[in-house]
Specification:
Length: about 775
């Protein structure tokens, strides 16, 4: 006879609202996907002169796009404001130089500039012939700029200032194709979209020489976004104040618990295997921080490293790619490890063979990490040719830099992780309601490979606007929404297993957070692609819903200190020490960085009227560092410290070392943000308004403010030093592990029988 499923611990209305919210959000995304496929900027079959001479073809544009990515130019400069920060934004720079070149051809002066402006805004693409016609001045400007980019960027004799290393692109044919792609992006940024008063890129970049100014939509939807933000925060805080006992975290009212000494907690084989995961996590983290410091140093000493020509061997585009890829790898690996660690506690039993599968997954991840890093180096240095470059080498798309082979293998590894989680939870899932915490834990885990796999819809030759739409499903929906969802559920489960909150309270708060995330986060994905060739409706809906993303972050900040109070409350009742103070402190820092980095800094640059001027400046980097490292990096450390408390022998644990890491990591990040990234970003923003976007992204601008780049150095050093103690402790967990093993049937099949706590009874 099959076991009867347990009832939902909260009202089923919570689950229904979540499903409706998800369906609503993804229905809008589906409609926006349709609009992008219908209205993305055309790639002409050929670009010709007024006499019919072929300047370059549509195939050359698409091949140039792929070469632009696989040679790592997106990790040196940017296109449409997306990419790295040392090099120029190629769209904006080409457009500015093209306008100057055309005006010079026409004799210079105001009349010549006006003629160039009118001609650049004219859309001379004929869909009937699939041809784009360039006038003589535009054709001559292309030839001039082809020579400029060959000499200054693609085929430099020396590495200094190049960012790509010397002679990065040796083939003249490849160089022409890359510049053809850049020229096409500049055309989309100036030519008016048919039937609209603005360009295909909603008049981005800000460029007076072609008349690119803020559109009506950017101003209107920015104003409405502020209304949504203020009204939404007021509503949520009002609900939280009125129904705090229902919506907020609060402790167990009817029982007291004693925290079991971590040294007395028995571990299953798969839980012990997690020590290796965290050791590798910290090793990757250390390398990632060293690469980050070196990459940032290129801004202070262009192309060099304290006098040594480092760029000759490790150019900026390679170190930045590795820095970004390793950030994703160490964060995801920590989440996978935490899932494996919690599964047997949730289910009450571990099936045979979980440890073998866990080590198999670890080996697969190692193959992906090292294979992708090597492939990216070979691709950027031109040692792979043809289709081998994007498949074995690098696709070169920011956040999806790894080659397609490694992307497929990573998805396969994530699916193996789902098998591990499903085997571990199966016993529990059979008896639980589909709306309770065990099922929510599994659903959120399943979303991780699912939404990363969306990246397969990107291809290096796909029309850019379409490709960028799917890329940001990975960057935003996978990273900012579903990893956040998985983490929220894991944190809730940890508090339940520690006995400091009830399962009902945790489930209710999880549902409330999911609803808040979904309202803004799903459609808010569009705030990334206001200006990369999408119709204006993407900016309108992206701005409107993106404002709501700050609301759950505000809610989490209100809750953050409650985490510490819960543990202290139980400790004061029982006298048993709370063993996870520093894990919870990392969670508190997550709340701080969530509000500041993702909320304040994120909302600042998500407003279309601000994004129009700042996208791709250091304000973007400021938001990225404060939210990526401040939120997901600190979450990874919180999960690591929690699990490490049980993986280490009591005599090997050190509160002082963990505290040292906590303050160094957070202090170093504060230094990076407030001594370098934020002030430099504000200066760039002012420069864009006064001198143009192209100038704010020029090497000349960074050389003028080198002192701010040197000022970042102490923060980087503090941050790097903060990684070392945690690496030391994880090494101890691997090489001097706790020897206490679990019995064959470890836990009772009940959350009340957590191995981490013991119920003492009596009223709280």
């Amino acid at each position: 006879m099959s076991q009867q499923r347990a009832k939902m611990v909260v009202s089923s209305a919570w689950l229904q609202v979540v499903c409706i919210t998800f369906l609503f959000g993804f229905a809008i995304l589906g409609y926006l996907a349709y609009r992008i496929y219908e209205e993305h900027p055309p790639v002409p079959g050929k670009v010709v002169s007024e006499k019919g001479e072929v300047v370059f073809t549509g195939d050359e544009i698409r091949q140039g796009q792929e070469l632009f990515f696989t040679y790592g130019l997106m990790q040196y400069g940017s296109i449409y404001g997306h990419g790295a920060y040392l090099g120029p934004d190629f769209t904006a720079e080409y457009l500015h130089r093209e306008a100057i070149e055309m005006a010079n051809i026409y004799g210079g002066g105001p009349e010549a500039q006006e003629r160039a402006r009118v001609e650049l805004r004219e859309n001379r693409y004929d869909p009937n012939t699939d041809a784009l016609v360039l006038n003589d001045a535009q054709r001559q400007a292309f030839r001039t700029l082809l020579s400029y980019y060959e000499k200054e960027v693609l085929d430099r004799e020396k590495s200094g200032g190049g960012g790509l290393g010397p002679a990065a692109v040796k083939s003249p044919e490849d160089r022409k194709k890359i510049v053809a792609f850049i020229a096409w992006t500049a055309w989309t940024a100036s030519a008016q979209r048919p039937g609209r008063p603005h360009s295909y890129t909603n008049n981005w970049p800000p460029e007076k020489l072609v008349g690119n100014e803020l559109t009506q939509e950017a101003v209107v939807w920015s104003s409405l976004s502020i209304i949504v933000l203020l009204g939404g925060i007021g509503l949520v805080l009002g609900l939280y104040g009125r129904y705090q006992s229902v919506l907020g975290w609060h402790g167990q009212e009817q029982k007291r618990v004693r925290f079991v000494s971590p040294g007395d907690v028995a571990l299953t084989p798969s839980q012990r295997s997690v020590a290796w995961y965290f050791f590798i996590v910290m090793a990757l983290f250390l390398v990632q921080t060293l690469l980050g410091g070196g990459t940032a140093h290129y801004h202070a000493e262009t192309g060099g490293f304290f006098g040594f020509d480092l760029a000759k061997y490790f150019p900026y585009n390679l170190t930045r790619t590795w820095h970004l890829q390793l950030a994703l790898f160490f964060i995801v690996a920590s989440f996978l490890a935490a899932g494996i660690f919690l599964a047997p506690v949730i289910a009450g039993k571990e099936p045979f063979g979980q440890q073998i599968l866990s080590f198999a997954l670890l080996g697969a991840l190692a193959v992906v990490v090292f294979g992708s890093l090597i492939g990216e180096a070979l691709s950027y240095k031109g040692l792979l040719q043809g289709q081998a470059r994007p498949f074995y080498g690098a696709q070169g798309l920011e956040y999806l830099d790894l080659g397609r082979l490694w992307q497929l293998l990573l998805i396969a590894g994530l699916l193996l992780w789902i098998v591990i989680i499903a085997r571990g939870l199966w016993r529990k899932l059979k008896t639980e309601s589909v709306g309770n915490l065990p099922s929510l834990f599994f659903y959120s885990a399943l979303s991780i490979p699912l939404f990363y796999a969306v990246g397969l819809l990107c291809h290096t030759k796909t029309d850019f606007a379409v490709m960028d739409f799917w890329r940001f499903w990975v960057v935003h929906l996978w990273v900012e929404d579903f990893l956040e969802l998985f983490t929220t559920i894991m944190v809730a489960y940890v508090f339940v297993l520690l006995g400091v909150v009830s399962e009902t309270t945790a489930t209710r708060v999880v549902y409330f957070d999911i609803i808040l995330y979904s309202v803004g986060g799903v459609v808010g994905t569009m705030h990334h692609i206001y200006f990369s060739g999408n119709p204006a409706i993407h900016m309108a809906l992206g701005a409107f819903f993106s404002a709501a993303e700050v609301i759950p972050l505000t809610f989490l900040t209100v809750e953050a200190w409650t985490f510490l109070q819960l543990g202290a409350h139980q400790q004061s009742q029982t006298g048993a020490p709370f063993p996870h103070r520093w894990a919870v402190m990392f969670l508190v820092s997550v709340g701080f960085w969530n509000f500041l980095g993702a909320g304040v800094f994120g909302f600042l640059i998500n407003l279309p009227v601000v994004s129009f001027y700042e996208i791709g400046t250091q304000l973007t980097a400021n938001h990225a560092h404060a939210s990526m490292m401040g939120v997901y990096g600190m979450l990874a450390m919180a999960l690591l410290v929690f699990c490490l408390r049980y993986l280490l022998r009591p005599e090997d644990w050190s509160d002082k070392l963990v505290a040292f890491s906590f303050w160094c990591l957070n202090g170093g990040l504060v230094w990076m943000v407030f001594a370098n990234l934020f002030p430099l970003g504000v200066m760039q923003l002012a420069t864009v308004v006064t001198n143009g976007y192209w100038h704010a992204r020029s090497l000349e601008f960074f050389e003028k403010h080198t002192y701010l780049e040197w000022l970042r150095l102490p923060g980087d050093m503090i941050f790097i030093v903060g990684v070392v103690p945690l690496l030391w402790l994880t090494a101890k967990a691997v090489f001097r592990p706790t020897q206490k093993k679990a019995a064959k049937s470890l836990y009772e099949d009940s959350l009340e029988a957590s191995p981490f706590t013991q119920v003492e009874g009596g009223a709280a």
